[in-house]
Amino acid sequence: MSSAVKSETAGVIGTSPIRPDGTLKVTGEFAFSSDLWADRMLWGATLRSPHPRARIVSIDLTGAVALPGVHAVLTAEDVRGDKHYGLEHRDQPVLAMGEVRYAGEPVAIVAADHPETARRAAARIVVEYEVLTPVIDAEDGEVLRHVPIRKGPQDVTAPVVVTGEYEVGMQDQAFLGPESGLAIPAEDGGVDLFIATQWLHGDLWQVADCLGLPHDKVRLSLAGVGGAFGGREDVSMQVHACMLALHTGRPVKMVYSREESFFGHVHRHPAKMRYEHGADEDGRLLYVKARILLDGGAYASTSAAVVANATTLGIGPYRVPSVTVDGYAVYTNNPPCGAMRGFGAVQACFAYESQMDRLAEALGLDPVEVRSRNALEPGDTMPTGQVVSGPAPIADLLHRVRTAPPPAEAATDLRELPGGVANTTHGEGVRRGVGYGIGIKNVGFSEGFDDYSTARVRLELVGGEPAAVVHTAAAEVGQGLVTILAQIVRTELGVEQVTVATADTTIGSAGSSSASRQTYVTGGAVQAACAAVLRELERRGGVLGDEPIDETVEWRHKPTFPLDPQTGQGNAHVQYAFAAHRATVDVDVELGLVRVVEIATAQDVGRALHPQSVRGQIAGGTAQGLGLAVMEEIQLVDGRIRNPSFTDYLIPTILDVPPMHIDVLELGDPEAPYGLRGIGEPPTISSTPAIVAAIRAATGLALRRVPVRPEHLTGT
């Protein structure tokens, strides 16, 4: 072979090859983490606190230990290493010690030879509690982090002022595959963990420290992931399964039930927000003041980063000379909250977009026009003082959704009215409304975090033809990453045959599959590793012989920097991404029923590496925003989750998701690999306020809380 590069290769970037896991998932043949199995395998179960706050007086394990088939019953006393874990602050106990701080907190774990036996044993554990008064109102919570933003003069006045108070409920990631994994004790005294996660190395560092083992004695491999959306960034049953496996000397599998899953992972932060916008008579913003309060629940998780995003992005993609924003994340005794698609930007966007509609109304302006007059442009500065580099097509995105083809006229088929096939209305009280929303999201980890990814690319001859293997620790969570990595290798090396190795911790970290960062950072690492392969090939005279070429590269994007603790100024973010939505809804104002008729969306993705997947991400993210707008909320009563099931926690079905007009812009970012922008989160951010704006237009109601419920529309 004279060269590894061919003139034409199928499945390169910019095309949409079939995903290698796609057919298996559609046919039900794909192995998810809950399908794992091993010889002599035991099953793990967890006993959880029924109280949001209580002191543990005593724990009696006698009944559980005596049950035939039980092999281990463990409590906090059995934790050999660090007693606490956490992504940013290690404040969460592996198992509760002394006091439980939220309803659902793990207190003890059991391993048995049958899952039902394990559950029965857990139920036999007797815990005596001294119930304490929980803190359930975020206004009374202990401040975890305060992020102040001060830009420009702070004494500005304006002739037109609008104010509003807004709330966002607690949303669940609602991934279909519950938390699950398999831990297998190893002969070297370590453990191998096969796990559905978003960050293998993030898990590794926490698990090994809690087990009291060197990091090289704990090996993690990615098992099939049934969705994530931020809910798998934190450790759930990872340490527990490993503890039980090491204690019993046998493989231990843990699979949460659907109900337990609601207690086993973090949720989107509920938010209370107060905004004041001041503008001149032409609708140009002069100042924005805001207070953003996020309920982080019992433990920190990623609350510090979420409140930073909510605050730094808290005025939206608008040019504002004077900004005064205070963001707070607080501890309460509610369930822990952390990462979820949109990561703080979702909550803020609902508030600032609601305010832009109020401003348009106060000025008698079109809601798109008032947004366009204030739209950021390249070279403008964010509230943090960071200059917006690269394309910022805010006005263009708004124009595109406004001029998108309109939906069909009002439905005449009763099945297409609010309430649908339930035949609850004949259309007498149905009103149509149209609303708009646009949002901004950072891409990647921020505030000086050392954000990098590691990739290994091997080029060799197989049967006389060049073939490549790419290996990273990046988690495929359904977003199509394994397809993209193969496309990059085909593009850079010109080979047809590319194998994507199973993600595991035998290679360096790839960071988390979150923050819309994985294609950017791991894609950049794979591209760089391919470049290293080509350099070595060139050194060999362009000939690939019997000796493979194997290159490993650690790749970083441009650096970010911490925020000034007093002013919030600083170049905290890597990249900004933008999306706009237009929503059309029909509302039965008498019954309080809403049907989203059509959604038009436009988004700049920089470069569509896999165009079909890009459209899928935009459609899926929009549907998740629809859920927050009109149905999804974890109901808390005195700190306890009251709807931990898909019977009572509602998510959009195919009958709820409307036709979508998707307009994809490719305005390349010159600083990103291939010019790409992260795409996974922006659709979720602006779809919610657009839908609520449409409901307001149909009803004339203020609607300052999401999700919008029927009683909000009928007053009953």
TrEMBL record:
It comes from the Bacteria. Coiled coil: none annotated. Residues 409-428 are annotated as: Disordered. InterPro entries: Ald_Oxase/Xan_DH_a/b (IPR000674), Ald_Oxase/Xan_DH_a/b_sf (IPR036856), Ald_Oxase/xanthine_DH-like (IPR016208), AldOxase/xan_DH_MoCoBD1 (IPR008274), AldOxase/xan_DH_MoCoBD2 (IPR046867), AldOxase/xan_DH_Mopterin-bd_sf (IPR037165). SMART domains: Ald_Xan_dh_C. GO terms for molecular function: iron ion binding; oxidoreductase activity. Residues 27-133 form the Aldehyde oxidase/xanthine dehydrogenase a/b hammerhead domain. Transmembrane segments: none annotated. PANTHER family: XANTHINE DEHYDROGENASE (PTHR11908), XANTHINE DEHYDROGENASE SUBUNIT D-RELATED (PTHR11908:SF157). This is Carbon-monoxide dehydrogenase large subunit. It comes from Dactylosporangium matsuzakiense.
